[in-house]
Amino acid sequence: MSGTLRLGLLGFGTVGKALVRLAEADAPRLRGRLGVDLKFVAVASRSLTRRPAEGLPAGARIGEDLRAVATAPDVDVVVELVGGLDPAGPLVVAALESGKSVVTANKLLLAARGSELAELARERGVGLAFEASVAGGIPILRALRESFAGDRIDAVSGILNGTSNFVLTGMARTSRPYVEVLAEAQALGYAEADPASDVEGTDAACKLALLARMAFAQDVPLSAVRTDGITRLRPVDFVYAQMLGRTPRQLGTARRLPDGRLLLAVRTHLVSNESMLARLDGPFNAVQVTTARGGDFVFSGRGAGGDPTATAVLADIVELARSGPRPELPPFAARPLEPCAPAYPADSVAPFYLRFVVADRPGILADLTAILARHGINVDAVFQAPWKDKAALPFVVTLEPVDEERLGNALTELAALPFHVEPPLALPMTP
Questions:
Q1: Going edge to edge, which strands form the sheet with 420-428?
Q2: So where are the chain's domains?
Q3: Nearest partner of 393 among 347, 349, 359, 370, judged by Cα
Q4: pLDDT tens across 290-301, in order?
Q5: What pLDDT score does 51 carry?
Q6: Predicted TM-score of the model (pTM)
Q7: Has 107 been annotated as catalytic?
Q8: From the CA atom positions of the chain, what is the Rg in Å?
Q9: Which of 149, 162, 310, 327 could form a disulfide with 127 if both were Cys (CB 3.0 to 4.6 A apart)?
Q10: 148-302, what's its fold?
Q11: pLDDT per position as a tens digit, 305-339
Q12: pLDDT grade, residue 46 (50/70/90)?
């Protein structure tokens, strides 16, 4: 393709400003490599006319009418950086129906409506690109779609949310409680004022659904991803984790069983201190891809922030400039995705860490182990560090590998015992 690729930008926040700055700085290199100029012809944001912003592209129309930009005749590619489901969803639909390719970083929209939007793009013969929606500047989606085409992907897993990783590594490093480290993350801009999506696992679940669609060509709905947050972890969990040679990490995991069904979950795992995941600190992301022939591949880098995300958005724009008006590679797969076939808890087997906080009295351990034995669950070890407060005594039981259906039934019984100060916490332990 040669000439000028005309861009319409929806949203002018942190990522939008970084995108314009990077595109303008890279203009000579991109022109020399592609023979094409990238030109922002229109920018729309709800606040632009009320609060003038710095860094707007020279010569672009500026306004608040998002739909007008999404359907403008002089726009070739719409870059959606508004976020959320509404108005972003209708705007993306309008752009695609108008025959325009779309680049977006909107993981929530893609998790909720990605298959629908992909089919619309396919019908209209235009592109839908979303590399920036997962893991910031890490090119994991393109790798899943292209680089592993000659192998079978068996599993995709990793640290998918930088906020949660910052909180967990901060708790491990400083022994401070969750609320204090979260407040630090908010002060540094790593966490939103309302951090629920990050710390409860929803953000990572959206990303995992997209990774699984790309890896396994199944239409994975967000509802198929089991999601647990990090809010119940206490400093004592990090003490016991170190006794076990492990550290807590929030992981998203998607694994294909031999019959094609998928195990899908976002939850906190205790990972070995020797693993790369344990050494990944702060707001970084990492994705591990396990293939049938090639084994394990790990991609890591900054998972959020203006520049990393904008870099991925710019890469998508460049790819559309290369491919022309009818991209050769469809968003997810060459044909419509197969229906998702999620696995059951009985198919998920792992050793587990169980943490209890109890009002100390004789016979507690006997009561707990009796229930576990009744459900056919074998205890591996028991740990009780010295503790002054006998009214809220924490201790840990580790289990030999057990399926989550049996463990869940046992935990229901365990939680009903009268001596608990708070509900038991169960965390899987990775190899």
A1: 379-383, 393-403, 349-358, 420-428
A2: 3-136+306-338, 148-302, 345-428
A3: 359
A4: 999 999 999 998
A5: 60
A6: 0.91
A7: no
A8: 24
A9: 327
A10: Dihydrodipicolinate Reductase; domain 2 (3.30.360)
A11: 788 889 999 999 998 888 775 665 667 766 778 89
A12: confident
Residue 413 contacts residue 369 (beta carbons within 8 Å): no
Q: Which CATH class is domain 3-136+306-338?
A: alpha beta
Give the span between the Cα atoms of 313 and 127, in whole angstroms.
13
Catalytic residue, candidates 39, 107, 207, 390: 207
**Counting every residue, how long is the chain?**
431
pLDDT-derived band at 191 (thresholds 50, 70, 90) equals confident
CATH class of 345-428: alpha beta
**In the structure encoding, which two tokens stand for residue 178, read together?**
């969750």
The three state secondary structure string of the chain is CCEEEEEEEECCCHHHHHHHHHHHHCHHHHHHHHCEEEEEEEEECCCCCCCCCCCCCCCCEEECCHHHHHCCCCCCEEEECCCCCCCHHHHHHHHHHCCCEEEECCHHHHHHHHHHHHHHHHHHCCCEECHHHCCCCCCHHHHHHHHCCCCCEEEEEEECCHHHHHHHHHHHHHCCCHHHHHHHHHHCCCCCCCCHHHHCCHHHHHHHHHHHHHHHCEECCHHHCEECCCCCCCHHHHHHHHHCCEEEEEEEEEEECCCCCEEEEEEEEEEECCCHHHHCCCCEEEEEEEECCCEEEEEEEECCCHHHHHHHHHHHHHHHHHHCCCCCCCCCCCCCCEECCECCHHHCEEEEEEEEEECCCCCHHHHHHHHHHHCCCCEEEEECCCCCCCCCEEEEEEEEEEEHHHHHHHHHHHHCCCCEEEEEEEEEECC
| CA–CA separation, 280 and 282 (whole Å) | 7
Residue 291 backbone phi and psi in degrees, to 5:
-115, 160
Distance CA 141, CA 146 (A): 9
